[in-house]
From TrEMBL:
Enzyme class: hydrolase
Name of the molecule in the record: Dihydroorotase, mitochondrial
EC number: 3.5.2.3
Domain of life: Eukaryota
Source species of the chain: Vicia faba
Amino acid sequence: MELTITQPDDFHLHLRDGALLEAVAPHSAKHFGRAIVMPNLKPPITTTSSAISYRESILKAIPKTSNFNPLMTLYLTDTTTPHEIQIAKKSGYVYGIKLYPAGATTNSQDGVTDLFGNCYSVLEEMVEQGLPLLVHGEVTNPEVDVFDREKVFIETILEPLIQRLPQLKVVMEHITTMDAVKFVESCKEGYVAATVTPQHILLNRNALFQGGLQPHNYCLPVLKREIHRQAIVSAITSGSKRFFLGTDSAPHDRRNKECACGCAGIYNSPVALSLYAKAGALNKLEAFTSFNGPDFYGIPRNKSKIKLRKSPWKVPECLSFPFGDIIPMFAGETLDWEALLI
């Protein structure tokens, strides 16, 4: 069985920098036409000039024959200015502004501490410029249970934000709960959307503990209960235009995952399309992977095609590089679908 679809884009991707960037960028460039690239480096990408420099580094890391196009983002801070938003839009290279609540995830220590108090004029300028806010939707209050942080973020930050700035385009990244699905569906279509990862489609929180602690299944936002996984699968297979592909592929050296305080992040770029196909509803797959994201961002759909063939293949146990190993999602397991370029 084969399925030919328009080449997908990845609307939430971590490429890191340095040797790690050189290792992983070709995997995304192999299957995806474009990607919204996250800015949480050290130091973070907070200016348009640094975003353009980072883009040049990405292009050097992919094969010369590749047409992969990185779409850049800026890291929102308490000191971001409306003028920087104007520069970003004018550049033609920046497609979104990323909100990390300070301390929420990897390299988020420079994130926002008070969105309404410190960033409201920036948000207003984003409305004027048509730049979407890309949201890591978790509160960081240590008194809030880690499994409830997305729900509380919606109630305390997102709902008031949409009420105050209804014309602001918002992407709720890597949604993990039924609450997020319901929130996105309740908003005006075309203004609020969500990306969905392979891990939150296929895994629930049991995957963190089956057979012992599984560090390579640890990501943020953390995996949730089965009822939430089912709600997300229902959302992406419903045909709704509000949900689209965003892998949140986040590579780390194996040593930084298998240690006393392991990093959050699942590396799925080499297997992502195989895993999205595994979710089912193949007649809705092309819209989810290839149409909904470009339509929301207001960019053309890709013209190239990619083929998905039902043919078992084994995921490598690890990917080895001079600096160390990266463990891919579903390492050592057999997948039913294989992605092929046409």
